[in-house]
Amino acid sequence: MCGIIGRVGDGNALEPLLTGLENLEYRGYDSAGVAVQNGSGIKVQKRSGRVEELKESIGEPLSGEVGIGHTRWSTHGPPTDANAHPHTDESEDVAVVHNGIIENYAALRERLAANGYEFTSDTDTEVIPHLVQYYLDAGYDSEAAFRQAIDELEGSYAVTAMVSGEHVLYAARQGSPLVVGMEDGEYFLASDVPAFLEYTDSVVYLEDGDVVIVDEDGVEFTDLKGDSVVRTPETVEWDPEQAGKGEYDHFMLKEINEQPTSLAQAIEGRVDSAIERIALSDFEPGTFDDVDSVQFVACGTSYHAALYGSLTLNQAGVQSTALLANEYSVSAPPVDDDTLVIAVTQSGETADTLNALRRAEAEGARTLTVTNVVGSTAAREADDALFIRAGPEIGVAATKTFSSQAVMLTLLGQRIAGDLRDEPPADLESLLPELESMPGRIDDLLAESTAESIAERYSDSQSYFFIGRGLGYPVALEGALKFKEITYEHAEGFASGELKHGPLALVTPETPVFAIFTGEEDEKTLKNAEEAQTRGAPVIAVCPDGHPAVEAADEHLSIPETEPDLAGLLANVQLQLVSYYAADLLDRPIDKPRNLAKSVTVE
Fold first, then answer.
1. Catalytic residue among 2, 254, 543, 592
2. Is 598 a catalytic residue?
3. In degrees rounded to 5, what are phi and psi of residue 218?
């Protein structure tokens, strides 16, 4: 996590640095800081709190053509002014920003302290500028000192550094994302593309082991030893306006409302209902003939999408399971070269998911990544990649990426099932037209939703339960996750049949139960909901108009009629809206919920 921005070019670096930090706050917002070369050394301004507070604290103007900045999600040490980045050596001749965890920092710190270097923070990062200064003091030039320091680090890191008096940035990557942006003599380093998207759409995604030197003449790409490596620029197709809130109060509401567009982009050219064909260009019929079983690995919201994809595969007769990536190292089922392991990760940089992917590859499994980011680590390291085309998602609570992931996994599952059966799945004829109509159905749902009034009615409840069966189960888990993430209220998701196996003990009249009806065994889901209702709990049925649950429930959130394979995705949009409006009533920081960051790049 954490957000890094660096800039080299003509004119003052401060404005693009602060803009970059604002664009990166979804990666962390415990503290923020900048450092610039102003002709008389390095000047640093940093503090705990949000970037807006940093901007307000900058007294005398900071100016210089070279600078670095950082917005922090705390790992080592609390979010204090002293622990904020950038960190420097004692003389402020070296400034560093860092994302990741330096596993051997304690040993390095002890060694440096024994040599007289003084530390002022609790962070692991502070060893880096002191280590660079140690080699500068030993007579190394700046580039050699940086390389030597990086060579001693163990763990995951993206590091950007500058040395006083030099119009240069040095950067390295190992296990944490770092990208380069380039545009007419102006160069950027950042944790993610949105940091500089309004300045350039030409990017290079660095790979593990890369070291780059950036000055006014360009970017030199090397390995740690200094040997040149080839890294080809790519053009990012995201519109800079997609990274702004536009007319919306929050990114989350904007991204909920972008789901018709993101789904249309996801399925464009990939579905042809007229001839009942799935057209995944990189996965033509026969691609998965040799697959025996499928394992999905993912975390958080992506895990819920993976569970959705796994259930659709099982229903199609293909052996499949979804596993939490952070548990994969201790509980992974056996794999072989007939196993397909699908990593689901919005950013393509989730540390736990990457580790699971690498373990599967080491065991000989075939691997595939479903991600939103072209050029991401997961996309590069897997054997194949399927991109969801959702565009940038800035709100920490994932919304449009979940629906796009679930739709693409549904399509992928149909392709896999078709290959293993040597014929298209039986329900393809009805599924594909419904899939093509999903953007329009979500558009209608958004226009007619009563989620805001439901949120108001139950805003003073003690707990919130979400239940579903079959493909409604991962939607129940996702609905509860979204609610707890942004409201800070207690919420839990259950398979509806599990309600009476323990959780029913927690049900009171202050426990609204959101019941999701997808058309799969709805009678049983309704019975489970009524079991809660008889204990005084209000039941909110998420289902089409005219469904039997409408009459039985206390409240109703309407979804359009569709195939059971897709109904849960419509229900999910309603639950996203309920969470949003409930959090808004509570005046929560919806786009930046406490203790959370968008992309979890450390274990």
1. 2
2. yes
3. 140, -160
